[in-house]
Amino acid sequence: MSDSIASSKNMAKNKFLEVVFLLDITGSMGNQIEAMKRMIKEFLASAGDEPTLHMHVWTFTESSKKCYVCKSPANSTNSDLIKYVTKIQLSTPPSAPHDTGAYGGDYEENSVAAVSALLDSFDQNDNIMAFIITDAPPHHVSAGRTPEAEAEKKWLAEQDPSLPMDMFQRLDRIVESLNITFVPINYESHGHVDPFYLQAALLTDGVVLRPTVNDAGLLANGLVTLMHAMQSTIVDGKVNRSEQASAIESLANMFSIVKADPDTWVMFETDPIAPGQLRQEYKTLDGKEGITAGLFGLLETTMDRFTGKRAGKRCRSVDPDTVAAAVRVFVLAMMIKTGFAKDDHKAALDVAQAELARQLEKNVETGKRETFYLNRLLGNLLTTENSVKPSESTSSQCIITLQSAWDTISELEQVPTSVEDVEAWMEIVLQLTLCRLLNIRFPTDAEGKIDFMDAWSASVKNVSYGAPLSAYAAVALRNHSDDGATYLDPSTRETFNSALLLAHPDDPVLSSCYTTLSALPSLQGLVQGYLVSGGLNIFPSITVGLQGSTLLSNLRIIAQANKPNLVVAPVAYEWLRSVVWSLAISDVVPAVDVVKVIENEGTLNPEDNPSKLMTAFIRYMKKVDGKGQDLAKKWKYLYEELVTNSVSFAIRLRDKGEACELIPTDEALISCFIEEPTTYDPLALLHPAETFNAGEALKDVATHEKLRTLVREYPIFKHNRDMLRLFWDLLHQRDLTAVRETDDFPLTDDELVTATVESILLRKRTTRYVLSESKAWVRSTDVSLEGPLADLVKKGYVSRIGSWKTLRAEHARAKLLQALEKKAHGTNEVVKESTWNNLLKNTVFTLHDQTYSLTRMDAPTMLSCVPDQHISTLGAAIVRGTWTSGPPSQLRRHTAAILPLFSNNSTLQTEIQTAINSQAICSRELVNRHGHTVKNTYPGFTGWNQDYNDVRLATKKPDVATKLATMKKYKLYLDEVMPQIEKLESQLLRELASMVVWLPDYNSATKCMKETKYILENGGKCDLTKVADYKKKVEKSGTKKVGQTWWRCEA
User: Which Gene3D superfamilies match (predicted)?
Assistant: First the structure.
C-alpha cells in the first residue's frame, strides 16, 4: 500500500486536496470517534497510489480551564495516521493525555477554535475540504460566559490578537484567507442545526450532512464511500455521474442534507446577544432525489477546491434588487428635479418606484416607513418649488454625471448578485454626492467590537480642512491607499479613516442630491456605511448620527481653543455650515422624536446623546424660525444636558486614574462646605464630616458663593458656555469668522454657572428626571442637591471615617476585653453559665453615642481572658451562649484550638463540639433563590444529607443537581479523611488539617482537598515553625491562604 495520501507536503501546490476532519471528542462523541478510526483504516487501506487526498484528523475538546485543538502530524504516512487515530480517546486531548477531564463541561463546544486553527496550518494556496463532526453548537455569546467559553476565548485571543473575537467575523476572515469548503456533519440531538455551521457551509459552497442514525459503522461506511467518490472525481477530472450514481445513492440512505437558502438567509455579521436572534429557516433535503443532487453538488465543489477555484463571494447584508431599484429612483428623481428628464424617464420612474416599493415591503421593520418617505419624495417632484437649477458654484462634473447616469444604469447587470455588481450600482450615487474626510472613533459594544449603529456616540478626533470631494473620488483615494482602508487628502496630505456625506448651502444641485438621497434611508445608509467601513452594510441612521457627532466635536474643539470673541477660522466655519445645512435639509427629519418633545413639552431625554439633542434643536429652530416659545428654558435644558454629560466624562476619566482638569476635584468641592481641623483625635471627638448636614450647608449663602466662584474658573463652565453660544449663532446664520454685533443669547452667565454647579453635584443626567408609568423620562419638579452633596462628602471621607471607626471599635473592644478579664479574675465563687451569659449580653461600651459589644468571632480572644476555674461556665457561655446573634458555627475554623480547653469535661467537650458543628437556623418561610426555607435549611457545604438532598432537588433550581452532587462527594470525602487526620502525630498538623478540611465551599473544595492530602502525606517533613505561621494566616483569611506553597518542605 502506498503512503502517498497521508504524506507530507512534498509536491507542488494544487496537486492534491487537503481533507481535514475536525472531530469533537467531548463526552458524548464516542460513536463518532470509533467511526473515525474505522474510516481512516478502511479508506487508507484501499485508497491506491494516486496522490489526490492529503488526510488530517484534528480533535477538539475543552475543560473549564483549557481549550484544546490537537492536530495529527503534518508529515504523517498512512501507517502513522492510522496509529495516531487509533490512540484517540474520549475526552482526552492527544497532545495532553494527562488531562482526562476535558469532557466539554457546558453544552456548547469549542468548534470555533477548531475552525480557526486552520489558519495556522494552511494558506491561500492550499485547497481544503473541512469536515466538522460534532453534536453541539459553538459558544454563542447568548449562551453566557461559562468557564469553557472563557477558555476558548483566551485560546482565540492568544492565537492571533489581530483576528476578530466574534465567531462570525472570524469565520469571514477564515473564508477570505483560505480556499476552503466546510462540510459540517451534525449530530445535534434536538434536530436543530446551529447557524454558525449553516453559514460556514453557505459561504464556501458546502452542505451540512445529518446522519440518519447515530451508528459508528454507518458513519464510517458513509465517509469511506464519500472519500472514494471525491478521490475518483479528482482522478477523472470531472464528476462522473453515471459511474458514481450507485455510491452516491447509497449515501442518500445514510444522510440527509441541510442547507441555508441563499435567497432568504440573512447573513450574521456578528454573534447576536439575544438567543432568539439566532433562529432562521433552512432547507432539509431528505428525499432520495434531493439528497443525491446535493451530494453530486458537493463533488462539483470538491473539483473546484482541488483545482484552486474559490467559492464565490456573495453579496451579504443588503438586498441587491433593493439597491438597484433605489439607485434608479434616485437618478430619475434628480433628472426630473433638474429638468433633464424626458417623458420616457418619467415613465421609467413610475416603474422604478413600483419595484422599490415591492422590495421595501419585504422588510417588516422598516418597509412601511421607507415606503412613506418614497411616496412623499415622488409627490414632491410634482411641485415646481422642488425643482432645482445649477448655480455658478455647482460642479459641472455633477451635471455631466447626472446626464449620463441613466445610460450607465442601462449598461449594468440588471439583476446584481455579487459584491462587485452592487458596488457598480453604488458608484453612480457616489459620483453624485459630496463628502469631507475626517477621523472617527466609533464606540464599541460589550464584546469590544465596533458599533457602527451607534453613530450618535461616535467621537471625531479631527477633520480635513481640504477641499470637499465627491464620494466617488474619496473611494478612489481609499482604494489606492497602501492599506486599502484610509483616505489620503490630496490637498493637505493628511490621512483620515472615514468620509462623511454632506451638502453645502451654496450648491443647490448637490444639496438636492443630498435631500433626495436622504429620502431613501437604506440607500443613504449603505453609501455612508461603505465610506466608513468599506463593506456593504446598511446603517440607516449613520449619516445624521455622524453629522451630529461631528458638529458636537467641532464645536467643542473650537470652544476649547478659547478664541477671543469666539471668532472661528473660515475653513472650520465652512465645515460647521455644511453639517448644519445637511441636517437641516434632510428629507427624513433626524431625531424626530426629540424634535416633537422639544416642541410640545420642552423637556429632553437624558439617555439621548448630546449630539442627537443638538441635531433635534437644528430642526426645531428651523421649524419655529428661531422664535419659539420658552426658548430660554429649552436652551437651559440643553445646556444642562451638555454640561452634565461633560461632568460624567470627567468622572469616568478620574475613576480610571487619569488626570482631568475639566471640573474641580472632589476635595476642592468639599472644602467649600467643610473646614478641615488643624489637628484631630478621633477618640476625643467626631469629625465635622461625620456630623455634616447637607441640607443646612446648602442654605448658607456664603458657601454657595464660594462654590460658584470656584466653578467659574474651570473649563466645565467656560467651554460648554462658549460651545452653546457658538451653536446659537450658527443656527441664526451669523458669520462666525467675524465678531458678532448682536448678542441675543437667551441665558446669562449667572444662570449658566448655577446650572453648572447643580450638574457637578448631580453628576448624572438622569437625576433631573423621573420615569413615568409609560417608561418615558419626565422632568422632575423637585430636584434636590441634598442627597448628592451628602454622598460627595461621604465618598470623600469614607476611608478616613472608616479608619476612625475601626480605631474606635478596637479601642472599645480592648476596653470590653479588659472588663471581661477583670470580672472573670475578680470572681472566685462558682457562677452559672446562664449568669455569665446575661453578663456578657449586658457588657457594652459607649463612645460618641455609639454602643459597642463583643461578637462570637471575638470568642478565641475572650477565652484567653478566662481562668481555668470558670472555663466550664464562662467559657461555655462564650462559645454557645445566646448573648450574641452570631451562631457557634462561626467558630468552626477554631475548633482545634477551642476543644482542648474543655478536655477536663468530656461531656461538655462533646456538647461544645456539637454546638460548633451545628448550623445557623434559617427563618425564611418562602423558598429563596437557592431553594432553602426554614423547613429545609442549608446544612453548610460540608453537611450534606439525603433528606436535604431530596427536598432541595425538588425545587428544580438551576444547577441544583450539580451542586448537590458536589456536596455529597465532599461529605463522603470527610467521612473518609477525618479518621486519617486524627492519626497525625503532630497536634499542630492535626489542628491545621482539621481547619482546612472544614473550610470549603463550592469554589474551594478541590483546593482544600488537595491541601489536606498534602498535609497528611508530607506535613511531617515540613518546618513546624512555618506550619504554625501558615495556620495563623489560614485562621485569619480562610480559604484565601489555602494552597500557598511557601510553607511546604519543598518550597
Answer: von Willebrand factor, type A domain
